[in-house]
Amino acid sequence: MRPIEIDHVAIAVRNLEEAVCYYRDALGANLEHREVIESDGVEEALLKVAESYIQLLTPTRPDSPVAKFLEKRGEGLHHIGWRVEDCDSALEELKASGAEVIDVHPRPGSRGTTVAFVHPKSSFGTLVELVQEGESH
């Protein structure tokens, strides 16, 4: 599995509007995409930084993983998204190497991507998301 580049750094926030304003006004990041991901119970705002993104996440329901994260850990780094050419292959390689995964199979992500999450236990305490541009075939 060879990552192409960092797709995004995800930050969990309580107030999405305030966070978007801060990253735009203080740091000059441009808001490129916004989406509610019902299946994950989050709303995201993607701010473009070079060829990658800062992904700001806020929960849309109290039982979502991001809501639980905020309750337990507070605002801050949630995960890092690694852009890969083939999410299926990358996930299989990680599973074969003994990595504990959250998603047994890749699934649809935001922006029409295909994604899969690797448990933080397998990546030194950091949740990792594999991100393939476009849908897998």
CATH class: Alpha Beta
Radius of gyration: 15 Å
**DSSP strand count:** 8
Sketch the major β-sheet. Answer: 8 strands, mixed
**Corresponding CATH architecture:** Roll
| Spatial sequence of strands, sheet with the most strands | 2-3-4-1-5-8-7-6
Report the total helices: 3
Which class do the helix and strand fractions yield? Answer: alpha+beta
| CATH H-level homologous superfamily name | 2,3-Dihydroxybiphenyl 1,2-Dioxygenase, domain 1
Bulk shape: globular
Count of the domains: 1
Percentage of residues in DSSP E strands: 35-45%
The topology string of helices and strands comes to: EHEEEHEHEEE
**In terms of per-residue confidence, which ranges show pLDDT below 50 for 5 or more consecutive residues?**
none
Average predicted local confidence, pLDDT: 94
- Portion of residues in helices? 10-25%
- The CATH topology annotation reads as 2,3-Dihydroxybiphenyl 1,2-Dioxygenase, domain 1
Ends: how far apart? 18 Å
What does this structure look like?
This protein has 137 residues and is an alpha+beta fold. The protein has a single domain (5-132), classed as 2,3-Dihydroxybiphenyl 1,2-Dioxygenase, domain 1. It is built from three helices and eight strands; from the N terminus they run βαβββαβαβββ. The protein has helices at 16-25, 65-73, 87-96; strands spanning 5-12, 30-37, 42-49, 52-59, 76-83, 107-108, 114-118, 127-132. The protein has an eight-stranded mixed beta sheet. The longest helix has 10 residues, at 16-25. The mean pLDDT is 94.
